[in-house]
Design goal:
Strand order of the largest sheet: 1-2-3-4-5-7-6
Number of strands: 7
Number of domains: 1
Radius of gyration: 17 Å
CATH architecture: 3-Layer(aba) Sandwich
Number of helices: 6
Largest sheet: 7 strands, mixed
CATH topology: Aminopeptidase
Strand content: 25-35%
Length: 208
């Protein structure tokens, strides 16, 4: 049976449920350490989060599609020259009350800690996720290549960057194979307390 081609397409609202389930595969270890939400609750939380998050001109999400199925996703962030900012204070956290106030509070803290602010010239990979059934099939490589092509096409961008957990040596090795290098090793007691992950590597890849 011939395998259908994989395409990289911009994120659309219709993909929210599938991307949310991908998030559960990738981040359940972190957020289920933080909260008492099960896989279904986490997927619904992320789906609602995607639906409520306003469009941000400084970020972009892409999805890897095969035969209509989302098998991977990547999100990037840059720093714009303008001073336009989204009004995060208007984010409708109250509409998440069905998940429990304490869970929502802890999730908001966790998401805040994930919210890295890139510098000028930097294209930060906020996340890259591949469905477990499609790993080691080149999907991640396609997503990373898209990010590199994006930087090459933007005159003001010069490098890619990302964070990887000290517990995820496999991912670190994979990034090193595609020319990322460790720029900074960070230790955070806050991360250790909330997620049981103290050590993080900030990695960069110079494109230009």
């Amino acid at each position: 049976m011939m395998r259908m081609p994989i395409t990289i397409e911009p994120m659309e609202p219709k993909y929210n449920p599938q991307v949310s389930r991908l998030y559960v595969h990738a981040f359940r270890g972190k957020f289920q350490t933080l909260t008492n939400m099960n896989d279904g609750d986490l997927a619904l939380f992320f789906e609602k989060l995607f639906a409520c998050t306003p469009i941000d001109p400084a970020s972009q999400r892409m999805v890897a599609l095969q035969d209509g199925e989302v098998i991977g996703t990547i999100s990037i962030k840059i720093k714009l020259e303008t001073n336009i900012k989204n009004k995060q204070s208007n984010f409708p956290w109250r509409s998440f009350k069905s998940f429990g106030k304490w869970n929502v509070f802890k999730m908001s803290i966790g998401l805040y800690l994930f919210d890295y602010k890139p510098k000028y010239g930097e294209c930060y990979i906020a996340d890259v996720v591949v469905h477990p059934d499609h790993r080691s099939k080149g999907v991640g490589k396609l997503l990373m290549q898209w990010a590199q092509d994006f930087v090459q096409g933007e005159p003001l961008l010069v490098r890619l960057s990302l964070h990887v957990s000290g517990k995820n040596q496999r991912a670190k090795d994979l990034y090193e194979k595609i020319s990322f290098r460790t720029h900074l090793q960070e230790n955070s007691f806050v991360w250790h307390f909330l997620f049981n992950e103290k050590e993080w590597y900030y990695m960069v890849k110079d494109i230009k």
